[in-house]
Design a protein that fits this description.
This protein is an alpha/beta fold. Helix content is about 30%, strand content about 20%.
């Protein structure tokens, strides 16, 4: 059983260390964390893939530290490493640009800084190995560091902390829709794709959010839902279901009881619900043979009835009566060129931080490709998206008749 008291990686501040090979990124990561997070060597290109470390870093709190390959790597393999480093920018909340004090800012460093500014990623520039270049002529406000002497390490932590946004205390999954004492019924089917011995992250986070409101919840599998509703003295304030069983659950829950899904609530939580609602309505306008990209944020083992690669394409074909070309990505993979797609359908993104979800959304918008998510699209195909948005009437109004 996993430790449920740990802050999920998706909710941690992601701090990425970027720079050329041998600028001392890995040594600096180890010095800042006071741990041996990355392997250190004088050989260029020791870090070949991004290294992730979840930890508590004072004064920030829960963070994910990311050490990346050098941005000046060479050759065919080196170009792939550079591409992996750049991809981590999509999930980076704060960037640390590490330059060699003896060399100063290189073209690669300047290009990175320009990219960070373009993507509005807050960053701090560090001139490392100052012990080897004490007389280096650099900007007056430059932050010098040395992992050998410890120079600048504490100030670097303070500058990183100053760049971090305070947690948005108003962001809730659903507790802002509840009052103390309210009852919520959660429908969580246990099937072949459910992890053994534990619940998936959105379910756990939703339960905690309900309890923080001093509300109550009961958790049932799909078949036990009618019995649970009948056993309650009063109707629940809300029923929240796994999107996969929307079609069954909608017939079990009386129309006077509000019904929505974990996926819809998390789309709202991550700030993409309005876009997802508009994107779902595009499905019925797509021509035969249109390219649909289905994106899974995690890398779980695919089951024979996997929702992303099996169930969702089947439901889409059945709903539209058309055959489409389906394409799939998972984990950290997300195409930079979306021009060949007519619709993007994304999972709830529970394993991705808000920064990466916003990046994927904005990339889709820049390419003018409609974007929706699993739960919103499934509710739309079941004809109950308006009902699922009962708490958000402004969004329900944009669904075409």
């Amino acid at each position: 059983m996993s430790n449920l008291n740990q802050t999920p990686a998706a909710n941690r501040i992601h701090i990425g260390f970027f720079g050329r090979r041998n600028a001392g990124k890995s040594s600096l990561v180890n010095a800042v964390t006071a741990q041996t997070v990355s392997i250190v060597s004088d050989t260029k290109g020791t870090t070949t893939d991004p290294v992730y470390k979840s930890m508590e870093l004072l004064p920030l709190g829960p963070v994910v530290i990311i050490d990346t390959p050098g941005l000046d790597d060479e050759g065919e393999l080196g170009e792939k490493r550079v591409e992996r480093a750049r991809r981590t920018l999509a999930k980076t909340d704060i960037a640390v640009v590490v330059a060699d004090a003896a060399i100063g800012l290189t073209q690669e460093d300047k290009a990175l800084i320009d990219l960070l500014k373009k993507r509005a990623v807050p960053f701090v520039t560090v001139f490392n190995k100052h012990d080897l270049a004490p007389d280096a002529l650099l900007p007056e406000d430059a932050l010098f560091t040395s992992t050998l002497t410890g120079e600048g390490i504490e100030e670097l932590k303070e500058r990183i902390a100053a760049l971090s946004k305070p947690a948005d205390s108003d962001r809730r999954i659903l507790s802002d829709l509840l009052s103390p004492g309210d009852m919520v019924v959660l429908v969580t089917p246990i099937d072949a794709s459910a992890p053994k011995g534990r619940m998936i992250l959105p379910q756990v986070q939703t339960i905690r959010d309900i309890l923080d409101k001093r509300a109550m919840c009961i958790t049932v599998q799909t078949e036990e839902l009618p019995q649970a509703l009948a056993a309650l003295k009063n109707p629940p304030r809300l029923v929240v279901t796994d999107s996969q069983v929307f079609g069954m659950v909608k017939n079990m829950v009386p129309p006077e009881i509000p019904l929505t899904s974990f996926s819809i609530l998390f789309a709202r939580f991550k700030g993409i619900l309005e876009t997802a609602v508009r994107g779902a309505a595009v499905l019925d306008t797509l021509p035969e043979g249109a390219n649909i990209l289905i994106c899974e944020g995690c890398t779980h083992h695919r089951q024979c009835e996997d929702i992303g690669t099996v169930k969702l394409p089947g439901w889409i074909r059945r709903h539209t009566g058309k055959d489409f070309a389906f394409h799939f990505t998972s984990g950290g993979e997300f195409p930079e060129d979306l021009s060949g797609y007519q619709l993007i359908v994304h999972c709830g993104g529970c394993m991705l931080n808000e920064k990466e979800m916003r990046y994927r959304l904005l990339t889709s918008q820049d390419s003018r490709i409609p974007f929706t998510n699993y739960g919103t699209l499934i509710a739309y195909m079941n004809g109950i998206l308006c009902r699922s948005l009962e708490f958000f009437p402004d969004l329900a109004a944009i669904i075409p008749e």
